[in-house]
Amino acid sequence: MEFYGFSFSLIELIAFGLLLLVFIYQLYFYFRYLNGVLRLQTKINKNKISFLTVQPSVSVIICAKDESDNLRKFLPFVLQQDYPDFEVIVINDGSTDDTEILLNNLCVEYPNLRTTFVPVGANNRSTKKLGLTLGIKAAKNDILLFTDADCMPEDKCWIARMVRNFTPETEFVLGYGAYFNKKGFLNQLITYDTLFIALQYMGMAAARKPYMGVGRNLAYRKQTFFDNKGFASSLHLSAGDDDLLINKASNSKNTRVEISPDSITWSEPKKTYRDWLFQKERHLSVSSYYKSSSKLRLTIEPVTRGLFYLAFISALVFGGLIIQIAAGVLFLARLTIQLFIINRSSKHFGERKFIFTLPVFDIYLPLVSLYFFTFGRMASRGKSIRWK
Questions:
Q1: Partner of 257 at 20 to 30 A CA spacing, among 35, 284, 310, 376?
Q2: φ/ψ of residue 88, rounded to 5
Q3: How would you write 115-163 as a 3-class SS string?
Q4: Is-contact 199 286, C-beta < 8 A?
C-alpha cells in the first residue's frame, strides 16, 4: 500500500495502527486519571475546592495483631494529633505478644485512647474485619478515620486534613498511604507500585469514578458502614476490608480525595520479595468482586499497556525506517508524559524520583498481576485460598 509516495506492507500498517490506537488510550488514561492529583492541586490553589470550616469529633480506628513494636513506635504520633476532639480505638486482634500490656500502659498516659479486642482463636476467616466491626461499634463519633498499626502520620494535622473533606454530602475520604523510602531495588519497586496505584484510585475518584481506597489512610461515616451492612458481603474473604466497601458504596457525589502532603501516612515496607508478592497477591485476590464498571476500567489500562509494547516491538522488527522512526516517536512521547506526571506527583507527595527504573516497573508489574490471575494461587484455587 502507498501513502504520499511511501510504500508500506500490510503488517507494517497493522503494527503501527495498533500502536497508535493504544498510544491514544494511554494518553487518555494518564491525563484523565493519573494526572488527577496534580489537577486537583491546581483547583485547590485556585480556591475552587471547598472544605469544612468546623472540626467535628472523630474516632480513629486501628486493628493490631502481634504488633506491639509498631504500636510502641507509631501509635504516639496518632495520639498526639493537633485536633480538638478525637478518640483512638485500638483493637487487639488476638495478639500473643505484649500488645495488651503496652495498650494498658498507654491508656494511662493518653486519656483519649480506648481499646477492645478480638478473642484469641476467634473462628472467622478475617478476624481483622471482625475487629474493625467491634471498633466501629464502640466508636462514639460518626466520622471514622482508619490507619494501621505500622503507620505513622506525616504531620500532627493528619486528622484535620482528612476530616476537612467531610462536607454534608461526603461519606468517603481517600488518603494516600505511602511506604518509607529505603535503599534497594525492592523498595523502589514497592514505592513505585504504591504510588501508581494511589494515583490511579485517587485520580479516578477525582474524576468521579471512585473504586477503592487503602485502609492505611481512609475515612468514612459510621452510618455509611451500617447502611451498607458493614463487611457482611465479604466476610468469606480474608482481604478487602477497605476497598470492597468503597467499591460497593462510593459514587460520584459521596467520595472525596485528600492530597495534601501532610495528610500522608507512612508504613514499613516488606523486606523480601516473597513477602511483597504475598501481600500483592492478597490484595489482588478481591478485585474480582469489584463492580463490572470498575473491573473493565482497571483491565483496559494494563491490556493497552501490554499491546503498546508488543506493537512497538512489532513495528521495529517488521517495519521500515519510516515506521520505526514513527514508532520511536510515540514511545518517547509516552515515556516523557509518564516521567512528567509520575515524578511531578511523586514530588508532590515527598516521594523519590523514578527515571531509569520507570520503564522496567512499567513492564514488570503487569506481568506480576498477570501471573497471579493465570498461573498463581488465585487462578488455581480461587475462593479457597487461605492467607496464612
A1: 284
A2: -120, 120
A3: EEEECCCCCCCCHHHHHHHHHHHHCCCCEEEEEECCEEECCCCHHHHHH
A4: no
- CB distance 385 to 378 below 8 Å: yes
Alpha-carbon torsion 27, 29, 30, 35, what sign? Answer: positive
Counting every residue written for the chain, the total comes to 388
> CB–CB of 81/111 below 8 Å?
no
Is residue 101 scored above 90 in pLDDT? yes
Q: Is the pLDDT of residue 279 over 80?
A: yes
C-alpha cell belonging to residue 333: 512521547
Q: What is the pLDDT of residue 372?
A: 86
> With contact defined as beta carbons under 8 Å apart, do 143 and 256 qualify?
no
In the sheet with 113-118, reading across from the earlier edge strand, the strands are 113-118, 86-93, 58-64, 143-148, 218-221, 172-174, 255-257
What single letter denotes the amino acid at residue 247? N
Global pTM value: 0.92
pLDDT score of 74 more than 80: yes
From CA 8, how far away is CA 343, in angstroms rounded? 38
